[in-house]
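[audit] Reproducing an earlier prediction to check determinism. Same input, same settings, fresh worker. If the tokens differ from the archived copy the diff job will pick it up downstream; this log only records the rerun itself.
[audit] input (216 residues):
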Amino acid sequence: MTEDRNQNQIIRIDARGCFVESLSDSFEIGKAHFVFATYDLSKPSGQRQTNNIHIYIDVAELLELCRKLLGGEMRWLMQNKKKNGDSTPLYQCLGGTSAEKLAKYGRSRADGMSLSRTAQLVCGNKTDFLFVADSGPGETNAKGLIVPRFGKKPENHVSVSMTFESFSELMLMTKIHYEAWLSAWYLAKNQTSLRRTQQQAGKDERLSEEGPMSMF
């Protein structure tokens, strides 16, 4: 893990051979950045990471997840799905990079397709949740969404087992850091506006003291 990532890290939740971490480096584009990774400790240092998937969730969706967690709705949904044997996701995020953008960045896939990245929150059998990320080939639909085309065989797959409490920690800590960042952003914006106003007032005052310029 790079020093920059350590500086941007908000919280990391570990499970067996994998983890998910929240980073603060995408708030300015309205996204919460989650990195999913698996690792193999038997491999040499520097080669232990076996899967790595970056998921970007809209801040509005993050806040909605937090609302459901804080209000008890998420726990009720989880319990209801488990009771009824419902395996559909509690939450799903479709994202990725289009083939056009990959080509622009010089990172086109060999198959010429888009890169699909998905995240799902599903109920676990032995735990409350599985927070799952997958990546692989995808196609961009008419609405601009990148639809996965890897079926049940993603190129990268990370499934993090989480309790209700650990998932809440991940989401709510990210929310708190976003709110702190947003407050700082507004403060910096207001300070910049104030400096410009003061500078303009100073210019106007100097012009007033100098008086009107003579034309002769």
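[audit] rerun output stored. Observation attached for the diff report: The first strand starts at residue 9 and ends at 15.
[audit] end
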